[in-house]
């Protein structure tokens, strides 16, 4: 029996064996079984199957019988009808170059021009694409690229501009260990977790929809102080019967992918919370239905069964949202670096800035400028792809308990 080789130095010679062709069962097992007698050390392995086409690469130390190993690899390939290449080089067991990042690209559709532009942007920043895998094909196409050699902050700024020009979304995260440690996700409610704005639904009951919608839009753009705008809008609700709150709660429609997102996060052990500039009386039934761990929202004053047009207690405004995120994190013992915040308006700026990962969801420009990632497709489950969860993993978990369900995506 051949003695195992000693540990490899960075400059020691290596052999790279690559097999390509139609995917078949047993290729990987056969290759490594046949290589065992040569006493080599396996330094790296990558395998990828795309539409039934296999690419399997194995980086090995150099054996005493190089010719014998090459012929064995060729024989294995011939047995499966695969093309085999054998390349010789130097050791590659060191860590990747500094500046490691995960770049997730989302598009519907995702065009070759967008991929080309982003790849060029990575190259221009001194980066190298080490690996590319598909995260999802539904409800959008999501591709993850593992990049080394470029500063993640520089990549984020540069690739965000390219993505905007190409009509796709991009998210850049430093590919360190903390990326796997996120344990608390907090979401805005109006136009993020749900479709539409609760205050506008209530204002419609009071016949003040147009005026309130105009104020809401200005506040979300950051043109008005949120607390001031909230008081102004709530004043229009004076005199409405309290039963209207239940009616509006029943009319709420979740954003597509919301249930999938929360269900998946909970399976993964995340704590989930909602922070809203809306109203607790409307939001709490939804939070209970989704089994949310935390809720922070404004409370409407009710006297003699009618809304007074005022809120009571501390207003959940822009600073209040960030405070709620910090409070939630403290309660569950999660460092702020391990939190994720998702929102759409200017009043979410402080919250997204405070979070370890801030995600702008179909957001106003003021929020996109400070977010770590910006999503422009109307599917909340795209957040999961940024967190490293694939569509295949989501659907496999759903299939176990019978919750798997796809909704037809309308064409443009």
Helix-and-strand structural type: alpha/beta
Proportion of residues in β-strands: 25-35%
DSSP summary: helix tally: 15
Give the low-pLDDT segments.
1-6
What is the mean predicted local confidence, pLDDT?
A: 90
**Helices and strands, in N-to-C order?**
EHEEHEEHEEHEEHHHHHEHEEHEHEHEHH
Order of strands in the sheet with the most strands? 12-11-10-9-13-14-15
Sketch the major β-sheet: 7 strands, mixed
Percent of residues in helices: 25-40%
Bulk shape? elongated
Number of strands: 15
Tell me the span between the first and last alpha carbons.
64 Å
Radius of gyration: 26 Å
Describe the structure concisely.
This protein has 412 residues and is an alpha/beta fold. It has helices at residues 27-35, 66-80, 112-124, 152-166, 198-205, 209-220, 226-234, 243-251, 258-267, 280-290, 318-332, 349-354, 365-368, 382-386, 391-401, and strands at 13-22, 42-50, 53-61, 83-90, 101-107, 128-136, 141-148, 169-174, 184-187, 271-279, 294-303, 306-312, 339-343, 357-361, 373-375. The radius of gyration is 26 Å and the shape is elongated.
Topology:
Layout: E1 13-22, H1 27-35, E2 42-50, E3 53-61, H2 66-80, E4 83-90, E5 101-107, H3 112-124, E6 128-136, E7 141-148, H4 152-166, E8 169-174, E9 184-187, H5 198-205, H6 209-220, H7 226-234, H8 243-251, H9 258-267, E10 271-279, H10 280-290, E11 294-303, E12 306-312, H11 318-332, E13 339-343, H12 349-354, E14 357-361, H13 365-368, E15 373-375, H14 382-386, H15 391-401
Parallel strand pairs: 9-10, 9-13, 10-11, 13-14, 14-15
Antiparallel strand pairs: 1-3, 1-4, 2-3, 5-7, 5-8, 6-7, 11-12
């Amino acid at each position: 029996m051949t003695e195992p080789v000693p540990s490899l130095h960075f400059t020691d010679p290596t052999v790279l064996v690559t097999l390509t062709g139609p995917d078949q069962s047993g290729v990987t097992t056969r290759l490594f079984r046949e290589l065992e007698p040569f006493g080599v050390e396996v330094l790296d392995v990558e395998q990828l199957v795309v539409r039934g086409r296999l690419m399997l690469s194995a980086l090995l130390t150099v054996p005493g019988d190089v010719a014998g190993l090459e012929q064995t690899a060729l024989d294995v390939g011939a047995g499966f009808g695969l093309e085999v290449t054998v390349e010789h080089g130097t050791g590659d067991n060191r860590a990747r170059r500094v500046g490691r990042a995960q770049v997730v690209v989302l598009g519907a559709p995702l065009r070759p021009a967008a991929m080309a532009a982003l790849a060029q942007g990575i190259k221009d920043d001194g980066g190298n694409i080490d690996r590319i895998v598909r995260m999802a094909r539904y409800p959008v196409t999501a591709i993850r690229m593992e990049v080394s050699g470029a500063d993640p902050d520089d990549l984020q700024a540069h690739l965000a501009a390219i993505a905007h020009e190409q009509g796709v979304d991009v998210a850049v995260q430093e590919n360190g260990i903390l990326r796997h440690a996120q344990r608390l996700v907090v979401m805005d409610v109006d136009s993020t977790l749900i479709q539409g704005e609760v205050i506008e639904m209530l204002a419609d009951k009071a016949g003040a929809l147009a005026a309130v919608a105009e104020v809401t839009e200005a506040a979300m753009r950051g043109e008005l102080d949120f607390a001031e705008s909230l008081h102004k809008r709530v004043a229009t609700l004076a005199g409405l019967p309290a039963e209207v709150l239940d009616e509006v709660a029943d009319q709420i429609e979740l954003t597509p992918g919301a249930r999938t997102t929360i269900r998946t996060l909970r399976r993964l052990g995340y704590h989930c919370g909602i922070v809203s500039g809306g109203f607790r009386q409307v939001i709490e039934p939804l939070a209970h239905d989704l089994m949310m761990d935390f809720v922070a929202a404004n409370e409407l004053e009710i006297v003699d069964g009618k809304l007074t047009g005022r809120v009571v207690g501390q207003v959940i405004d822009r600073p209040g949202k960030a405070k709620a995120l910090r409070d939630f994190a403290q309660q569950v013992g999660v460092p702020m670096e391990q939190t994720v915040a998702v929102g759409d308006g200017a009043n979410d700026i402080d919250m997204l800035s405070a979070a370890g990962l801030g995600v702008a969801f179909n957001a106003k420009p003021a929020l996109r400028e400070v977010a770590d990632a910006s999503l422009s497709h109307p599917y909340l489950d795209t957040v999961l792809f940024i967190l490293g969860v694939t569509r295949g993993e989501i659907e496999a978990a759903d299939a176990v308990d019978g919750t798997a369900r796809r909704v037809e995506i309308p064409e443009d």
